Amino acid sequence: MTKLSMSVDKGAQLQKNRQQQPQRMADASSSRHAVEDPLSLKELSFTDSPLAENNKSGHNSFVSSGEPGASGSVGGDSPSHRNRLRRFEDVLRAKKVDVRQLRRLAFHGIPDKDGMRATAWKLLLGYLPPDKGEWEGVLKQKRAAYQQFREELIIDPKKEDNSAHEDHPLSQSSDSRWNAFFKDAEMMEQIDRDVMRTHPGLHFFSGDDGAAVTHREEMKRVLFIFAKLNPGLRYVQGMNELLAPLYFHFRCDCDREAASHAEADAFFCFMDIISEFRDNFCQQLDNSEVGIRAMLSRLSSLLNQVDPELWYHLTHKNKVNPQFYAFRWITLLLTQEFLFPDAVRLWDTLFSDPGGRTDCLLRICVAMLVNIRGELLEGDFSANLKLLQRYPPVDAHAILHVAEQLAASDTAL
Fold first, then answer.
1. pLDDT greater at residue 360 or residue 409
2. Which fold has domain 5-63+283-408?
3. Poorest-pLDDT segment among 6-10, 84-88, 226-230
4. What is the pLDDT of residue 276?
5. What is the C-alpha to C-alpha distance for residues 374 and 357, in angstroms, rounded to an integer?
6. Do 38 and 324 meet the contact criterion of CB atoms below 8 Å apart?
7. DSSP per-residue codes, 34-82
8. Total-model pTM
9. For residues 262 and 250, is the Cβ–Cβ distance under 8 A?
10. pLDDT for 134 beyond 90
């Protein structure tokens, strides 16, 4: 018996419903099963994900026009929905936004209307202060700072007069602009490859028209400038997936002035997210008390509290180490396990959970395990690993419901 029978029962029902849906993905590659220490390779599972294949097959076409939709939205025309809209509007229209009230509302999903999510996320991530009277000054200062980063950190010696410095393309001098330019080019190539692979089924990111090209260029600049400002961490493969939802919603803001500054705004919000989860990307901290291994250990401990039977089956009977599946779940904040609108919906809760983003993320991960406990308990090592690395389709709201039950219980993180 589990310690949270309600969650397990809910998981069983979700599993029964899900079995009626088509298979989401082909078998996992056998080479991924053979990795002895996935944490030695920061790129493990970043690009080989179920979401990537769903996108390629056009499963996300409903948002390809650039508008948020599907289950990522909190929609409908019911009286309760209209009431929620009014409550959001009242909070966001106030001269001083009640952030606590905004968190309570956003926890259950932010409506896709009039740029509400873009504004709400900026407030929840601390980019905008609660006092609207300060917004203009803060935005002007932040956007000017980002423009200065662009001018100072993006080097193009072809446009500079190097005659006075005796600089040239073959120079190996440490202060050579050309030398720095070629080093930056190597990093930019990696960023370019990842950005080109970002949500290939969404025209917003992958189209050939001028708008999509602009979107990719702006995302590449954000990631490059982040890397230059953080030489100890630099760019790590997969960071593009954390930037994409932010940039998408800021660029699609119905406020054209705000949308025109999506690049700068997304940069600072991306910085806020990375500041909390950066230790998961830092290989030097993998074995520390704050690194990714510690996070995986907390996940395992929480599962043991919630469902000892499932924990024992995975950890001791089948020896399925969380490193082999939850590494990607945690580092990429579930963006590769769910379709884009569902991941956005999860982020609404993640950003607004009063208990903090890290604890919220771990509860969602445990809810995902509880959701498929029946199949996991029946499976062997190979079947379990394939299922967890190719997480099956599920209603994101149902997962959040189970996670909310965990938060309401006496389960300690």
1. 360
2. Cyclin A; domain 1 (1.10.472)
3. 6-10
4. 87
5. 28
6. yes
7. T-S-GGG-TTTTTSS-HHHHHHHTTTTGGGTTS---GGGS----SHHHH
8. 0.79
9. yes
10. yes
Residues 58 and 83: their CA atoms lie apart, in Å, by: 34
What are the sequence ranges of the domains in the chain?
Answer: 5-63+283-408, 132-280
Tens digits of per-residue pLDDT, 18-47? 444 333 322 333 333 333 333 332 332 333
Nearest one of 204, 192, 211, 191 to 248, comparing CA atoms: 204
Q: Which helix (H) or strand (E) holds 124?
A: helix 116-124
Residues 6+ apart with CB under 8 A from 57: 201
Mean pLDDT on 397-402:
95
In the three-class reduction of DSSP (H, G, I as helix; E, B as strand; rest coil), residue 13 is classed as helix
Does 65 score more than 60 pLDDT? no
Residue written as tokens 């969404």?
A: 202
The per-residue DSSP string of 301-341 comes to HHHHHH-HHHHHIIIIIS---GGGTHHHHHHTTTTTTS-HH
- Mean residue pLDDT across the chain: 80
Identify the CATH number of the domain defined by range 132-280. 1.10.8.270
Q: 185-235: per-residue pLDDT in tens?
A: 888 999 999 999 999 999 999 999 999 999 999 999 999 999 999 988 889
Q: How many other C-beta atoms lie within 10 A of the C-beta of residue 412?
A: 8
Residue 49 to residue 33: CA distance in whole angstroms: 14
pLDDT given at position 292 = 85
DSSP-derived secondary structure letter, 250 = H
185 contacts: CB under 8 Å, gap ≥ 6 = none
Give the separation between CA 405 and CA 8, rounded to whole angstroms: 11
DSSP string for 184-233: HHHHHHHHHHHHHTS-TT-HHHH-SSHHHHHHHHHHHHHHHHHHHH-TTT
Asked if 354 contacts 377 with a C-beta cutoff of 8 angstroms, the reply is no
Asked if residues 364 and 346 have their Cβ atoms less than 8 Å apart, the reply is yes
